[in-house]
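BUG: 3D viewer hangs when loading the predicted structure for this chain

Environment: internal workstation, default settings.
Expected: structure renders.
Actual: progress bar stalls at 90%.

Input used:
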Amino acid sequence: MSEKCLAVVEINQDLCSRCCVCHSICPFEAINYDAQADKVEIDIQKCQVCGICYSACPAAAIKMAYYDYENLTDYVGRARKKIGSDTLVLMCRGNSPSTCEVEEILAEQGLHIENYIPLRLPCSGRVPSDFIFKTLNSGVKNIVSIQCEDKFCRYKEGTKINTRRLQLSKNVLEQLGFDKDALKLVKFSRKAVYHTEECVGCDKCVFICPYNAIKAEPFSTPSIVYEDCVGCGACALVCPHKAIEVKGYEFDNVLQRYGQAATAMKGQGKAPAVLVFSCQWSEFAALDNPDSVLKGKNAVVLEVPCFKGMDPVHVVNALQCGFDGVMGVVCAADDCKLSEGRDTAERNLGVLKDVLKKMNLLERFELFELSPRCEGEFQSKFNSFYQKIAALPQCVAVKKEAKQKRTK
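Structure tokens produced before the viewer hung:
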């Protein structure tokens, strides 16, 4: 992490009452009380930007750069006018792919909601009770919160904390005369999807799964222990027949998305064309609001569930199908939300670099370890990589040709 890291989470000491609620609730022990200085301080090196402290602070003394109360409220107001819905669906990043198959998740719970306001958050524990009350008071009639199952919360305690908070909110709302079903809670965790008819029984997934969630069977194809599957995507990477995949990150789905993007970018005659594969935990702004980071750039960002889910095949294929450069963004080892099996991802990276070197493509790929705790760090790395790719001979030639066409 850069020494010039501009922290996205801060405590306003003038507003802080020293109640230490944030200290007691932080799942990562990143908040400490200094009795001698009489200050509550955040250790930004440990902070995972879950937002649980922000949502729990009774004095509103914690400043959060992402998804703060005001921005969340403004978003719902604007989205409600645009979409024309009175139902808000809150989705935890850990259980909702960026492609948002929300209707399917809700249908599995017996909820059939077609028109809704989607709001995707890093963690359900980030949502303050005030936001729930404000939203319902503004005209929204129903709020559905899709939370990770307790044991699969990427922020350890986020689901448990928000479950208790929503139950208390529900009790208050009923006393205030709101419909008892105005606030619904859905527990869901993304798992691997197994197409047994495509499986050849090679058992590669059994050996690669870092959570022992896939078991070999003596006389049949392997079985998935869904109670242990965390949806990291490691199994999907090694399956030669795509018999096992992660919902929202299927190989053909990802292939189609960046293939179409490459065709569109090249059709515009602009250079460079850059693809970014980003772990959903290492960057927030570029994934949830790409225009805020990529505006004016010929680039697209695709999300991966974890470093282990970044398929080296896609990097090579993207460079061959039209992208001038591919940038990977992953969490550092200390920040990894699914740290088991990281060594496998690092070995894959080593093999990828060897392949790219043999193909004379290595200079067109770069991997960065980043964290959303540092404001602007993704932007800085991306701009640097974009300029590097733009300076490559083939990109300079394209820009020169485009300029000549404009002057004719």
